[in-house]
Amino acid sequence: MTPPHGLFIVLEGIDGTGKSTQSRQLAEWFRDQGREVIASREPTDGPWGAKIRATAATGRLSPEEELEYFLKDRREHVEQLIAPALAAGKVVILDRYYFSTMAYQGSRGVDPGEIRRQNEAFAPVPDLLFILDLDVDTALSRIGGRGDTANEFEKHESLTKCREIFLGLAGEPFVHVISSGDGPEVVQERLREIVAGVV
Ligand SMILES: Nc1ncnc2c1ncn2[C@@H]1O[C@H](COP(=O)(O)OP(=O)(O)OP(=O)(O)O)[C@@H](O)[C@H]1O
Ligand SMILES: Cc1cn([C@H]2C[C@H](O)[C@@H](COP(=O)(O)O)O2)c(=O)[nH]c1=O
Questions:
Q1: 23, 52, 111, 142: which sits with the fewest CB atoms below 10 Å from its CB?
Q2: 15 assigned to a ligand binding site
C-alpha cells in the first residue's frame, strides 16, 4: 500500500513566541489521528547544533561562521531525518528551519535572500510555514516567565529585526502569520484549522 503523502510543517518566530508549545500540541493532534509524526527542532541536538547552542552562553560566532554552522547542521538534519521521513509519508513538524537563519543571521547583516538561496539548494520547502508573531517585549517576558534569562541570541534590538524579516515572508502561498498573543489553546486551534484545510 502506498504510504500517505508526507506533510512538512514548520513553525517559526522569535524566541518566546510559543513554537515549542505549539509544535508539541500539533504533533499530539496528528498522532491522535493515527499519523506517524517526526517532531524535531533546529539547531538540532547533533554535533553542530550543540556547538551552536553553546555559543548562546559563551558568546556568538561571527555571522558568517554562524551561517556555516547552521548550514552544516541542516544538511545533516535533511539527509538523516527530514527527507527520509517525508519519503516514508510521515508528518514532519519542525521548531525552526532555514527561515530562522534568514531572520537571525539576516539581522546581523547577511543577505536573507542569499541565505534562502543557499538553503533551498538542498533543503525542501515546507508545505506549511507558520510564523508565530508577538511583540518583542511580551516574548522576552515569556522567556523570563519560563525561568530562563535572555541569552546572546535574545537581545531586544536584534529580535526586533528578526521579527521584521519573518513578517517579510507574509503573502507567500505556504506562509501563515499567526498572532501568538492569545492563549495557547486559541493559537493551536488556528493552526489546526489551517492544517485541516490542506490535509
Ligand atoms: N499563547 C501563549 N500565551 C502565554 N504564554 C505562552 C503561550 N505560548 C507559550 N507560552 C509560554 O511562553 C514561554 C515560551 O514558550 P515556548 O518555549 O513554547 O516558546 P518558543 O517560541 O519555543 O521559545 P524559544 O524560541 O526561546 O525556544 C513558555 O513558558 C510557555 O509556557
Ligand atoms: C535555526 C536557527 C536558530 N537560530 C537561533 C534562534 C535561537 O535564539 C537559537 C536557539 O534556538 P531555540 O529556539 O532557542 O532552541 O538559535 C539562529 O540564529 N539561526 C538559525 O538558523
A1: 111
A2: yes
